[in-house]
Design a protein that fits this description.
Layout (H helix, E strand, L loop, with lengths): L5 E9 L3 H13 L5 E5 L2 H10 L5 E7 L8 H10 L8 E5 L4 H10 L3 E4 L4 H18 L6
Parallel strand pairs: 1-2, 1-3, 3-4, 4-5
Length: 144
């Protein structure tokens, strides 16, 4: 099983809070990015979405909230990183949870990065820019 190309202009966001989704979309728009940003509201929707785009192009990275209904981010992260194809997609945990045990647990489950959500819109703009630039311009990811 090989992974299809990861698009350097496609971000998948798992976020259950409508206000946070709006702020994130606004941040991408305000920065002038033309990326395809797709939102899902929980881990079940995230896995279903990835399965629905199988054999096409995958997102360049996933922004994953931890505290979501139905299937939380921890369960979803574990499932993604155990999947033979999805495990190669970088997963950025993007959450309000800030404690060392949680951070450690997420890295043990396979998170590529752990970021605590900023508290201001200006900080969100900076974080979105830095994360996007890192995964799309700096990081090298294997094609298969």
């Amino acid at each position: 099983m090989t992974i299809k190309p990861m698009r350097k202009d496609f971000i998948l966001v798992a976020e259950d809070d409508a206000d946070d989704r709006y702020l994130m979309q606004t941040a991408f728009d305000e920065k002038g990015y033309k990326d395809k940003v797709e939102f899902v509201e929980n881990g079940i929707e995230l896995i279903n979405y990835l399965e629905s785009i199988a054999n096409t192009e995958y997102p360049g990275f996933i922004l994953l909230d931890l505290n979501m209904p139905k299937k939380d981010g921890r369960e979803t992260l574990k499932e993604i990183k155990q999947h033979p194809v999805f495990k190669k997609i970088p997963v950025v945990v993007f959450t309000t949870t800030k404690n060392d045990a949680e951070i450690q647990r997420c890295y043990e489950l396979g998170a590529n990065t752990y970021i605590v959500k900023p508290t201001s819109f200006e900080s969100l703009l900076t974080v979105i820019q830095e994360v996007r630039n890192y995964w799309f311009s700096v990081a090298s990811i294997p094609a298969s």
